[in-house]
Structure formats: C-alpha cells, structure tokens
UniProtKB/TrEMBL annotation:
Homotetramer. This is 4-hydroxy-tetrahydrodipicolinate reductase. (S)-2,3,4,5-tetrahydrodipicolinate binds at H159, G168, T169. It comes from the Bacteria.
Length: 269
C-alpha cells in the first residue's frame, strides 16, 4: 500500500464502536475517516472525538452511511444483522473492505451477503481475536480425533447487555466441532434445555449461555466421556483484542480480490 487506508466505523457510540475508534487512532497504519450512527441518535452532527469525551478529530458522526463510506477503504461493522446487510450493499458500492463482527445473523442473512461479496472484500467472523480462532482450530481437531462416546458441550458467558444467544463465537466453535465430526451443526445442536428433556442424545452438541455483569467473553468447549473430560477454554478480559483483530482484517483486505473471507484467512490458519 502506498497510502494509509481510511476506515469508517459503524455503531460509533457503542462499546465496540468506541474501542474500534481508539484502536484506529492508536495505529500508524490506518486513519479514521467516518463514523456512523442510527438516525435520531444524540451523536449525529457532533465531532466523534468530542462526543467520546475527548478532543475533536475532524470526523463528524453521520446517519448517512454512504456519505461516510465514500472516502473509506474499509468499513468495520459491529452492529445488528439488518443494519449490516444495508452496510454490505453500500460498502460494495464504495468497493471498500467490509469487516463484519456483527453476531446473531441467520443463515438467510449470511447468504444475503453474497451479492455484495461479488464486488468487494467481506471479512466476517463470529470473533476477531487470535486466541479464539486458534481455539476454533483446536476444537475441530479434537472433535475429529474423538468419537461420539465423548459428548460435546459449549458454554459461553457474556455481559448482561448482550442481546443474542448463543454467541457468534459459541456457534463458530459448534460449527468447528461439527465439521470435525463430519456432521451438520443444525442437525445435532441442542440450543436450549428446560423441563423434562429426556436423556442427552448421543452425538449432539450442546450450548449453554450465561449473561451477567460486565463479562467480556468466556468460552469453554467440553469433551466428556465416562471417566475423563477435556476442556478447551478462551477468556477475553478486554474488548481491545476484538478491535485489534478487526483492524488487522481491514488492513489485510486491502488489494484482495472480492469475495467472502474469515479470520482464519486473515491469520493464515
């Protein structure tokens, strides 16, 4: 690259939005050129730096994403599924790399990203951290090595404000376990247990979600058979790990051919 890529952040006022902005400002490899919020938000029309309680940055928060995307080489998007689909279309029009950390997307919504990926780079992942992506690879390998005598359970914990469950990371780990076993996750997933459920079905992959306090993110993959257990675990204590991963993805995507990618591609795993 002969220039410093400009990056626009959607959901600028949120916890991840502000963390992303700080990560970009701390980097000498990128510059902040846009900040987007939903219509009617109190930050609209303000300098994003002063809205965050700091000095002015020369970037005004807007509710017009195309305006923010026009001068950007990358968009980093941790918002909601419906908004992400809109942003994908606009990012493709701008030929900007679209880094998607949005969770809770349905299979139909993920499939709806394909037209945009024909024109621009999309990097989508349930989790942007290096550690979680290594955990995903380990989960796949362990699941492939063990037969279904070992039950697989995925337990995740997040802060009280998280709106989707299981988390995108938990589902990513479930997909890895299912792929290791050579099965389809949707056919073996147990995503909620309540009441008289009967005995656990052999070969199923279970999910449990905890929501409490300010937990950033904890994920356990449990492989349990009679007489022994294997536990793979990742604990995030700072959202900065996700922001750094997203920024790395935005930079990695510069100059890549249009298409759909994930963090394994970014990290070369």
């Amino acid at each position: 690259m002969t220039h410093t890529p400009g990056i626009a952040v959607t959901g600028a006022s949120g916890r991840m939005g502000q963390m992303l902005i700080r990560s970009i400002l701390d980097s000498d490899q990128a510059q902040l050129v846009g900040a987007v919020e939903r219509k009617g938000h109190a930050w609209i029309g303000q300098d994003v730096g002063t809205a965050m309680g700091g000095k002015a940055l020369g970037v005004t928060v807007t509710d017009e994403p195309l305006e923010a995307f026009a001068t950007a080489q990358a968009i980093i998007d941790f918002t909601a599924p419906e908004a992400t689909l809109e942003f994908a279309t606009l990012a493709a029009q701008a030929r900007a790399v679209h880094v998607i950390g949005t969770t809770g997307m349905s299979e139909a919504q993920i499939a709806a990203l394909k037209p945009a990926a024909r024109h621009a780079v999309i990097v989508r992942a349930g989790n942007m951290s290096l550690g979680v992506n290594l955990l995903t690879q380990l989960t796949k390998r362990v699941a492939a090595a063990l037969d279904d005598e070992f039950d697989i359970e995925i337990v995740e914990s997040h802060h009280r404000h998280k709106v989707d469950a299981p988390s995108g990371t938990a589902l990513m780990l479930g997909e890895a376990a299912a792929e290791g076993r050579g099965v389809r996750l949707e056919e073996v997933a147990d995503r909620g247990r309540d009441g008289i459920t009967g005995a656990r079905q052999r070969g199923h992959i279970g999910f449990a979600a905890l929501r409490a306090g300010d937990i950033v993110g904890e994920h356990d993959v449990l492989f349990a058979a009679p007489g022994e257990r294997i536990v793979l675990r990742h604990v995030a204590t700072d959202r900065a790990v996700f922001a750094r991963g997203a920024l790395r993805a935005a930079l990695w995507g510069q100059g890549k051919p249009p298409g759909e990618y994930d963090m394994l591609d970014v990290l070369g795993l």
